[in-house]
Specification:
The chain is of the alpha+beta class. The protein is built from 3 helices and 21 strands. The protein folds into 3 domains: 87 residues, conserved putative lor/sdh protein from methanococcus maripaludis s2 fold (Beta Barrel); 89 residues, Elongation Factor Tu (Ef-tu), domain 3 (Beta Barrel); 122 residues, RNA polymerase II/Efflux pump adaptor protein, barrel-sandwich hybrid domain (OB fold (Dihydrolipoamide Acetyltransferase, E2P), Beta Barrel), CATH 2.40.50.
Amino acid sequence: MFLKHSNHLKFIVLILSLSVFVVSCGKKNSSEKKQKMITSVDVYIVQTGDLKNDIFVTGNLLADEQVDIKAQEAGNIVSINFQEGKPVVKGQLLVKIDDRDWKAQLQAANVNLETLNKDLSRKKELLKINGVSVQDVENAENNIANVKSQIEQLKVKIDYSEIRAPFSGVVGLRNFSPGAYLNVGQTITTLVKSNPIKIDFQVPSNYANSLKVGQSIQMVTRSNKDTINAKIYAYDPLISETSRTINVRAVANNPNNKYLPGDFADVLLTLADIKDAILIPSEAVVPQVDKQTIFIVKNGKAVSVPVQIGIRTDRMVEVISGANVGDTLIMTGLVTMRSGIPLKINKVLNITNN
């Protein structure tokens, strides 16, 4: 009887021991499973910094004004009144073409006009007594109009015989001498005004909203390596369909015509210079269909936050709204990241805007 009771107690102890073992194993497996569900991430602490967005492009120097001086009437050159490579002033006579034939025709036309005017006056008197017809008077008036037209044409030819500078500048070279015959449209020389001097360059279209008239730029010319300060005074109101860029034009002082049109220049354009901007690494931004988001660590879990992005640099982006200084920004595992995922911080990254 005692032996039977002893065996019963041993059986109960064995059952209790197995229960404790099973419960212990279950808790251990649950803990291990929970640890496996925690995602390890690298983070960046959101901070402020100075945002200076510079771009470098190649530009071309242009003259403020430039024109090919051409003959508007054909004829022999009587005189050349400029020195190659020297300054001239607006209205200065550059070349004189022989106009004696046109002046002789003009004198004859004026005499003819005087005669026709007298004939018209006589016919008008005769018309009063029906001595001539109305048609005769009208023909006389038409003859006068034709001669007046010829006179105006001759005056224009005589005016074109004096080729003058349309603006002040420096003339180029010539390839003819006095006595040479010029054809209509033949180039005589080039006139250039290069103070101030202009700079043409192209800016990628994604910077269109950052361009402003009056914005300062710096450029370094290829020929003499001088640094020149210039200001944007105009840019195209459209984007090129082929290059997806915007043509921009700036102007700079050019005393003594030191910088020559046609030279290349390396242009530095500062599109933004903001103090204490909230900056985050560009790779932390997760684009969505209709917004952009970031993930931050909050209470040990991932939280998705929509953000409004401002200026971008090569490494950083400006956050206008959505992120605050001190936020713990998730940098890794963003492809599979979701709100509510438990997180473990593996490493705090140190990323600068330099």
